[in-house]
Design a protein that fits this description.
The complex is a heterodimer of chains A (about 220) and B (about 325).
Chain A: H1 6-16, H2 27-45, E1 49-58, E2 62-64, E3 70-79, E4 84-89, E5 107-111, E6 114-118, E7 125-134, H3 154-168, H4 172-194
Helix pairs in contact in A: 1-3, 2-3, 3-4
Chain B: H1 8-19, H2 29-47, E1 51-57, E2 64-67, E3 71-78, E4 85-86, E5 88-89, E6 107-110, E7 121-126, E8 134-140, E9 145-146, E10 159-161, E11 167-169, E12 173-177, E13 183-185, E14 194-205, E15 207-213, E16 216-217, E17 225-232, E18 239-245, E19 250-261, H3 279-293, H4 297-319
Parallel strand pairs in B: 5-6
Antiparallel strand pairs in B: 1-8, 2-7, 3-4, 3-8, 6-7, 9-19, 10-13, 11-12, 12-19, 13-18, 14-17, 14-19, 15-16, 15-18
Helix pairs in contact in B: 1-2, 1-3, 2-3, 3-4
Classes of the chains: A alpha+beta (about 220), B alpha+beta (about 325).
Chain lengths: ~220, ~325
């Protein structure tokens, strides 16, 4: 559920810099700062997650990812039709040396805007699912919500815009303070909402001992 | 290039906001474009974020293979048949001392003997190649300015075939003939400038495909897939694809052509091929230069530290290959 529009953030920023109507910081500049913050929060938090489907890939070692606006590939699944296989990411040096089981896709690594597959597939075409964090590809205007950014990160955009609006106003001390708040808030949210941890099997067992602290 | 990439004018607007100079006065547009261009190269050098996979072929009897990039990280050997393999990196002391199995490439080392312009460097291959062998170089490169249409997906206009009947030009450029006839781009390129071409090749049969920039041949292509080639253009101004038919009817289809050219920002629509996450750091770097010029040294220093840390952070976050472990897929 979206919470803040660009217009809302502008009001919040103008409240803090005590410039209710555009004077030093113009409306266009503020729109740019919010759009930059929108992208920047997505970059640092990796919170805009997409599942990108690549179908009917002809036999090729490398798959172009240009135009997908991918920041980081987290997982790649090879679609076997009735089931899927999670592929492991490897160091490039392992190519040709790592043990393989047949010639279907089993390993990968990302090299800038291409995905390299190991071993070189022997099937005519194949499908992959790419789980990636991306950067939003749309420009926001006043009435827009921060569409692709999870709700819990919206306030970070406000703090980012405040940082650089303060730069424009030459209030460098305030800019440093807002930047520290922005990074602090973003990191906490990233740990809470973005990082993924798989449960180990032991999590389903009743533990032998539990240490309780006395309150 | 569409959003989220930012063109020179967008970046200039950001820098002017941070410097609090809405229109050119103390800071000229040329100065800001120069700082942005410096910043783009500085970011690419420090983060190694512009990474390509370049085609290369050994020369019979020649240990050296020319490279046109900042740094080679890995070298992949592409045998005529069998599994492709990354070569082991060594230093020149190991040459001839490490065990080898056959005469095909097995080791490589860095030794940068540059040409006069600094564009070409070299790597060495061991054992000394006794034939032409296909290699792929995984490299870090400098950022180039992307062509306004990126990628080119419409070949129906702007491209001319020497023998029109041999080429079908539409959403792809498809060649089918018994003799090679060239395909030429109608737009003139800049002579003696470094170009990067990326293009997708399918349906390749009985053909060796060679791109030319300004009369200089790039590395020829013998396999399907996405290929990247760096060419230091010659004195001509044409960009050409030349298919050479080895036997019978040769076929090859090219689509999605990405053209990027080395240079400084000069037009408001110019944009570097740096991924969009680096755009903000470009603006920060230029702002730091501007603050320094304005003798606001303490703020420039603080901003410089911020910029430096962010480059390192983004490198770790987006550039480095961090593999999964063996235990990552074991159920326990």
């Amino acid at each position: 559920m979206p919470t803040l529009t660009v217009s809302d953030i502008k009001t919040l920023v103008r409240d803090m810099i005590t410039e209710a109507t555009p004077s030093v910081v113009t409306d266009t500049e503020l729109t740019n700062l919010i759009n930059d913050g929108y992208k920047e929060v997505a970059v640092k938090s990796l919170s805009y997650e997409k599942k990108i489907t690549k179908t009917n890939i002809p036999i090729a070692r490398r798959i172009s990812l240009i135009g997908e606006n991918i920041l980081k590939v987290h997982y790649v699944e090879y679609n076997l039709g009735s089931s899927c296989l999670g592929m492991q990411q490897i160091f490039p040096e392992r190519i040709g040396h790592i043990p393989i089981d047949g010639y279907s896709p089993q390993y990968y690594f990302k090299w800038w805007n291409c995905l390299t597959i190991e071993p070189m597939p022997d099937v005519a075409t194949y499908d992959l699912y790419i789980y990636a964090s991306c950067i939003p590809g749309t420009v926001l205007t006043d009435s827009d919500y921060l569409t692709y950014l999870p709700e819990e990160f919206h306030e970070c955009v406000w703090q980012f815009a405040l940082t650089y609006a303060s730069y424009k106003l030459k209030r460098y001390g305030e800019a440093a303070m807002y930047y520290n708040r922005y990074i602090d808030n973003l990191q906490k949210r990233k740990f809470e909402y973005v990082y993924k941890y798989a449960d180990p099997r032991l999590i389903q067992d009743i533990p032998a001992n539990v240490k309780k602290t006395r309150k | 290039m569409a959003y989220p990439f930012l063109a020179a004018s967008d970046l200039e607007a950001r820098v002017r906001t941070y410097l609090n100079e809405v229109s050119a006065d103390f800071y000229t547009q040329t100065q800001i474009y120069n700082w942005l261009s410096l910043g783009a190269r500085e970011i690419a050098q420090k983060s190694t974020c512009v990474r390509r996979v370049l085609e290369a072929i050994t020369v019979n009897g020649e240990k050296r293979v020319a490279t046109n990039c900042y740094k080679v990280f890995h070298v992949e050997y592409i045998p005529a048949s069998g599994r492709k393999v990354m070569l082991t990196k060594i230093d020149p002391l190991k040459v001839g001392n490490y065990p080898s199995n056959g005469t095909h490439p097995q080791y490589w080392y860095e030794w940068s003997v540059t040409n006069a312009g600094g564009e070409y460097q070299f790597i060495g291959i061991d054992p000394t190649p006794n034939d032409t062998y296909n290699l792929r170089l995984y490299v870090a490169d400098l950022p180039k300015i992307i062509h306004t249409t990126y990628p080119i997906v419409s070949w129906g206009s702007g491209w001319t075939a020497a023998t029109p009947a041999d080429w079908t030009l539409g959403s792809t450029a498809a060649f089918s003939a018994t003799a090679g006839t060239i395909l030429t781009w109608g737009t003139a390129i800049t002579a003696n400038v470094n170009y990067s071409l990326g293009f997708n090749v399918t349906n390749l049969s009985n053909v060796v495909l060679t791109p030319y920039a300004g009369g200089t041949a790039g590395q020829y292509i013998t396999t399907n897939g996405f290929h990247q080639v760096n060419i230091l253009a010659g004195s001509g101004t044409s960009l050409v694809f030349s298919p050479s038919v080895s036997s019978g009817t040769g076929t090859v289809t090219i689509d999605n052509l990405y053209i990027a050219k080395e240079g400084n920002l000069s037009a408001s629509t110019d944009a570097y091929e740096l991924d969009p996450q680096w755009n903000r750091l470009l603006a920060l770097y230029s702002t730091m230069c501007g603050l320094t010029r304005g003798s606001r040294i303490a703020v420039a220093q603080a901003l410089g530290e911020l910029y430096k840390n962010e480059v390192e952070y983004l490198r770790q976050l987006n550039v480095e290959v961090i593999p999964d472990g063996k235990n990552s897929i074991i159920y326990r």
